[in-house]
């Protein structure tokens, strides 16, 4: 039975500390002093009869009890935010909004087709698209700031307490500008990445562990001369004016490759192929807009 002395402020403080990684940053987000925040966390731990977080020089770390409590805390906050947002929207007379997180390869390739199909079915629904790396978007999904996310399947730890429905399988490619010295080679070994500047996915990108495993298996170290980003706009423009190589999901550059603005190097990255799909909160009953958008995504993926 839930202890009625557990209040919204307890749950909000706990979830914010976890999300920000430290009491100091959580204080700034919540506009609280550190003693007040520490007191609130201590109250929650007392009510639950368990220590939820360990504090150290590197920030805070969840205990097993804290990890168990986190899922319910984030789910509760997300549900409350959706309820408040719904009341405010009705009060203002707003139209319904569907908030969709899209990872870069999906935002460039699949999403335009899916949105077009969805808008024909529900023209009155505002579609709010947010792009970014895997880590950021799944955090937004758990917190209820987006309704669903479409992108690469992440690691088991990053996908905890989320549902994943596969849409298709996508490869990772190494690209360059037309005329690059490597473009004419029939085969480019991954070791060549050490000879050129590389645009490389950052730590919280879902494809980074896949690329890392492939390079390690072939004895290739992490490229030292690299720029880490998930920005498609930066990657394609940087390549056009440099000899850099770009390791990226094929969907991000599919149109550039088809129209000849970039070329795909013949580098063996087949082991990086992985599923792309729809991520949702399993405890939530999807709205009519979410169901229709899922159908639009599936149709767009089937026709790709």
UniProtKB/TrEMBL annotation:
It comes from the Bacteria. GO terms for molecular function: DNA binding; DNA-binding transcription factor activity. Pfam families: HTH_1, LysR_substrate. Residues 6-63 form the HTH lysR-type domain. GO terms for biological process: 3,4-dihydroxybenzoate catabolic process; positive regulation of DNA-templated transcription. PROSITE patterns: HTH_LYSR. InterPro entries: HTH-type_LysR_regulators, LysR_HTH_N, LysR_subst-bd, TF_PcaQ, WH-like_DNA-bd_sf, WH_DNA-bd_sf. GO terms for cellular component: cytosol. The keyword Transcription applies. Keywords: DNA-binding, Transcription, Transcription regulation. Belongs to the LysR transcriptional regulatory family. This is Pca operon transcription factor PcaQ. It comes from Thalassococcus profundi. The lineage of its organism: Bacteria, Pseudomonadati, Pseudomonadota, Alphaproteobacteria, Rhodobacterales. The gene is pcaQ.
